[in-house]
Every structure is written in structure tokens, then in C-alpha cells.
Design goal:
Distance between the termini: 69 Å
Number of helices: 22
Helix content: 40-55%
CATH class of the largest domain: Alpha Beta
CATH architecture of the largest domain: Alpha-Beta Complex
Number of strands: 22
């Protein structure tokens, strides 16, 4: 017994010491980070902003208190689009910044996000400062951003991908057949093909038609912009892709897609020449993260009595609170209500980057948009995606702004269940039996086949939600219901196509949407502040959440090309009830 108490006492003392040491270590780390944060970065004269876009690009960055702190540094974390554009705007007016060293080889962002980055870089060039791009191998996405640069270098052993865009879809029917899992599908709209991966092993003709349509729309927009920047013909660019003309860097040079073939030392010699410094002198580079620290936007700029609330919603749409990679209806409703009731907020911009999700959650947020619209202007801003449930959120706005290559539309509804009876019986030897008080007490069922009547009930519920969806589109967009049905059916459109058919009002990015909001509220430039919502986490909130990268970043790092499949399987867990989603997880490359 004495021995027992000795071990218990030793354990308690050990836990106490561990707690004390851990607490002191935490305080030490916090103090070190706080002191680091207090030391504001200074920008040296004749500096070059080194802009590395080879990271995930998301709507807003997540401040990491461990930046610059040894192994916890997050310099490779996702880039916030809002913060990036703010930095470029500051650099444009900063006399110490003479130009930009652009690294844009394989940016991990959607086409609309890259459009905003590219336009911000073009705006930076109006200051007569240079933008030089350098890379070893550039994807088409990377080249699209870099194509506006004054100088584009590729190494002699590098390459430029120029073979057209490709959208490849993944199908799981064969896997489900092998497992003995039977999907039960209820949908409205021949283009609402989100269920196709579970019931087909290839694209249906309607799906192939819509993918071809919007893929060519994105591609044509890219070609026009590249042609303008590089002073080449669109037809020539198409021929280069069809014939795989760009086999090596010299081909890209001959066709004027790049300006130089050279190594990094040659590239930096060009920068020194532009800066007017000696060859042996070190270039004053400043990274995006450091420059953001040096140029934190002044929250007091503008009239304190007038504000425009920019509510950022990014990810799959779910019920409950928002989390990383999800739009929680409770969170967005709360933010919209807060902006609606705040008398200082004169207009609201709802920024959406989502392919959809829960129908009920989308409807809850739409309701709050309607309430806000009754008292102040509400402007919708579309990012890479604002489709299905993502479009549902925005269709009640006064005006909607989208990039030409935004993916939107997908006005359709589906419900999805998996009958796992055969899987459990044949693969695991598990069977089920039941006792019921009523005929349909086991409805809906996933462990046995549903009756035809039960399936009809689910289909009627799906039909009813589709009717609600199309009716609200007609009311919000002031379109005849027949016109809405003609462009609905789950079909996906680009922003450019959506403007032509009345689903959006104008083309542009977030800054354009903010200008529309200001004009709608009769506010002049400089007479208002911009408030982004939800707020960013405070220091200690960030401290406790910063020990790991984002879940998506971890998946990408650990699984590489397998990451999308794991993400898709995880997403299946949230596909309960009526869904409004894009027909597929889209990656245009």
C-alpha cells in the first residue's frame, strides 16, 4: 500500500511540474512572439517586393502568431487574397518599393482569384514600377498571372505548360459496385450531375455539354487577356496549344510568350540594372508577409460614422457555425444581422466562394440577406465559385458582381442516400432486422431498400425545394419563371455567361463590389471605412490554434495528388438532406 501511495504521489508531482513548466514555456513563447510582433518591419530604400504565389490562395489569411519563430514559422501558409491586394495597393504608393519579383509557377487558387491578383498587379504597374517574373516551370495558371509582367524569365532547362485547359472528373460507381453500396438518387435538372460519380462511369451528354461550354469560356477569356499582354494573336495562341508548339523555353521565347531564357543570376542582374545598383551589391528583397507587417491597414481611415461591412463566406455550406473550409449558416446569419442592425454600416458586401452544400442552410442565409436588403444595400461578390447553394445565398442581393471566369449557376437540387445492406451483409457479415409501430417508421432507410412510395416522397421533397429555388431566383433577379427554368436545371455557367443571361449584373472583383455598395449607399470615396467580417481571432485564440497547419494544407502536404479523393470522401459525410452543390469537384488545369 505504501508503494502504491508513493507512485500516486510521484504521478501527481510529475503532472504538477509538467503543468508549471508547460505554462511557463507557453508564457515564454507568447512573450517572444509578442515582442516580435511589436517590432514593426521597416522597408529599406530601393527595395523589391518578392511575391511568391506558389501557395494556396484563399479569401483571407489566418494570422499565425508563430511567424518568424523558428520551426513554427508559417511563411508557406495560404495567401489571403484580401491582404495580398492591400499589400499591392500599399506598394504602389510606397516610394521605397521599386518593383516586384514575381514567382508564379503553380499558384493554388481558382481562376477568379487569380484574375483579381493579376488585375491588382496590372494596377501596380500604373505607378511605372516594374514587375519581373521568374520561374523554372510554369503551369497555365501560373503563366496567366505572370503574362502581364514586363519581363518573364524561364530557366534553360525549365518549361512552360501551354496545351489548353482540362477538366477531369472522377467517378466512383465501380468502387460502389465492388463494395455492394447502392446510391439512392433524387434530383431535379438534367444538368444537376453531382450524383453522376455514383451512378455512372463517365459524363452524361448534358454534363459534357455544360463542362465544355464553361471550360471554353474560361479558356477564351484567358487567351484574350494573354494576347493583350504579350501582343500576340488569339488564333496564334490556340495554334500553339493545339500543336504543342511550346516544347522548350526557346519556343516560348520565339513565340513572344516570354521575354528571356536565363538563370536566376541573370534574372537578378536585370533587376540590379533596373534598380541602378552594382552587380555585386545585394538586392533589398522584402517578402509579402514582412511587407504586410510593415503596412498594416489603418483601421481609422475613412469616416467613422460610415462603414461598409464585407462579410466573407468561403467553403462548403453547412448548418451550425463556420469552421475552416465551411460556411456555417449560424455564423453568416449572425454576421449579416450584426451588419443590418449597426447604424454605422451603410451597405453590406457578401463575398461568397462556395460550390454549395446544405439547402436549408443556404435558405437561412438567403432569408437574412432579404431582411438586410430592406434597410440597406446588399451587394453580392462572387469569387472562384458561387454556384448552387453559393448562388442561392446571393440571389436576393440588390446587385451581383462576378469575375468573368467565376463558376456560378447550377440552379438545381438533389438528395442522396446510400443503401449499404449488401455491403454489410456480403463484406462484413452484418445483417439487420426491425420492428415498427407504423408502416414507414424506418423512413428514410440506409440499411435496406426503400419502398417505391418512400422514394416518391423523397423525390417530391426534392421537387418542392427546386420550385422554391427557381421561384426565389425569379423574384430576386426580376426574371420570368420560364426564363429561369430555361437557364436552371442545374447547369453551370461562367460569370461572363451568367451576365449575358441575367444571373449577375456586372463583371469585376471584390473592389468593384465595394464601389457598387458605396455608390448604392450614396457614399463618396474616402467617406467610409471597410469592415471585414467575421473578425479575425485574437492573439491567444490564434496561439492555441496555430500549432498545426490548416486541415486542407495538411492533406495536400501529406497525400499530394491523393488529397482530393480523401477530401471528397470526407465531404460525403456532410451530404445529408437536400443538397445544392456543384455537379462536381472542379479543378481546371
Amino acid at each position: 500500500m505504501r508503494q502504491f501511495f508513493k507512485y500516486v504521489l510521484a504521478t501527481i508531482v510529475g503532472l504538477l511540474l509538467f503543468s508549471i513548466v508547460g505554462f511557463l514555456l507557453l508564457i515564454g513563447i507568447g512573450s517572444a512572439i509578442s515582442s516580435t510582433a511589436d517590432r514593426q518591419t521597416t522597408v529599406k530604400e530601393n527595395s523589391v517586393l518578392k511575391l511568391n504565389l506558389n501557395s494556396p490562395i484563399q479569401e483571407r489569411s489566418v494570422d499565425n502568431p508563430f511567424n518568424g519563430f523558428g520551426p513554427f514559422d508559417s511563411s508557406g501558409d495560404a495567401i489571403g487574397l484580401v491582404e495580398l491586394k492591400q499589400a499591392l495597393k500599399a506598394a504602389k504608393e510606397d516610394d521605397n518599393i521599386k518593383g516586384i519579383y514575381l514567382q508564379s509557377e503553380y499558384p493554388q487558387g481558382g481562376w477568379a482569384s487569380l484574375e483579381e491578383v493579376r488585375n491588382a498587379l496590372i494596377d501596380f504597374k500604373t505607378s511605372k514600377k516594374f514587375v519581373y517574373a521568374f520561374g523554372e516551370n510554369m503551369t497555365e495558371k501560373g503563366y496567366y498571372v505572370a503574362s502581364m509582367a514586363d519581363k518573364i524569365y524561364i530557366t534553360p532547362t525549365g518549361g512552360l505548360e501551354w496545351n489548353g485547359l482540362n477538366a477531369e472528373l472522377t467517378f466512383f460507381k465501380g468502387t460502389l459496385d465492388k463494395l455492394g453500396v447502392k446510391p439512392e438518387i433524387f434530383r431535379v435538372g438534367e444538368f444537376k450531375s453531382a450524383i453522376e460519380p455514383f451512378v455512372r462511369d463517365d459524363m452524361s451528354e448534358p454534363n459534357r455539354l455544360q463542362v465544355s461550354s464553361f471550360l471554353n469560356s474560361v479558356n477564351n477569356h484567358m487567351l484574350v487577356k494573354v494576347a493583350e499582354s504579350r501582343k500576340v494573336r488569339v488564333d496564334s495562341l490556340k495554334q500553339y496549344a493545339d500543336n504543342l508548339r511550346i516544347e522548350e523555353p526557346e519556343d516560348a521565347l520565339r513565340t513572344k510568350l516570354i521575354t528571356n531564357v536565363g538563370y536566376q543570376d541573370e534574372f537578378e542582374s536585370q533587376i540590379r540594372k533596373q534598380l541602378g545598383i552594382e552587380e555585386k551589391k545585394k538586392i533589398n528583397y522584402i517578402s509579402l508577409g514582412k511587407y504586410e507587417d510593415a503596412n498594416k491597414p489603418d483601421a481609422e481611415l475613412g469616416n467613422s460614422r460610415n462603414r461598409i461591412a464585407v462579410i466573407v463566406a468561403s467553403g462548403d455550406i453547412t448548418d451550425g457555425e463556420s469552421s475552416e473550409g465551411t460556411i456555417g449558416s449560424e455564423t453568416v446569419v449572425e454576421e449579416l444581422r450584426k451588419a443590418r442592425l449597426d447604424e454605422k454600416v451603410k451597405a453590406i458586401v457578401l463575398r461568397v466562394n462556395s460550390g454549395g452544400g446544405s439547402g436549408q442552410a443556404s435558405d437561412a442565409m438567403y432569408r437574412e440577406v432579404e431582411l438586410a436588403r430592406r434597410v440597406k444595400p446588399v451587394i453580392g461578390s462572387m469569387s472562384d465559385y458561387a454556384a448552387s447553394g453559393g448562388y442561392y445565398m446571393l440571389m436576393g442581393c440588390n446587385r451581383i458582381v462576378a469575375e468573368p471566369n467565376t463558376i456560378t449557376g447550377s440552379i438545381g437540387v438533389f438528395s442522396l442516400l446510400f443503401n449499404t445492406e449488401t455491403f454489410f451483409k456480403d463484406k462484413l457479415g452484418i445483417t439487420y432486422d426491425r420492428v415498427k409501430t407504423n408502416t414507414n417508421a424506418d423512413f428514410p432507410a440506409v440499411t435496406h431498400e426503400m419502398t417505391p412510395f418512400q422514394k416518391q416522397v423523397l423525390q417530391r421533397g426534392t421537387d418542392r425545394f427546386y420550385k422554391i429555388f427557381t421561384t426565389k431566383v425569379a423574384n430576386g433577379r426580376k426574371l420570368p419563371i420560364d426564363s429561369v427554368k430555361a437557364i436552371a436545371g442545374g447547369r453551370v455557367w461562367t460569370g461572363q455567361q451568367a451576365k449575358a443571361i441575367g444571373l449577375v449584373d456586372q463583371l469585376g472583383g471584390l473592389d468593384d463590389a465595394i464601389k457598387v455598395a458605396a455608390q448604392s449607399a450614396k457614399l463618396k470615396e474616402g467617406d467610409y471605412r471597410i469592415r471585414y467580417q467575421p473578425r479575425k481571432k485574437e492573439f491567444f485564440e490564434r496561439l492555441f490554434s496555430a500549432f498545426g497547419d490548416s486541415e486542407e494544407a495538411r492533406l495536400q502536404t501529406q497525400l499530394g495528388e491523393l488529397a482530393p479523393y480523401v477530401k471528397y470522401l470526407k465531404k460525403l459525410r456532410t451530404m445529408e438532406g437536400i443538397q445544392m452543390r456543384l455537379p462536381f469537384d472542379l479543378d481546371i488545369r
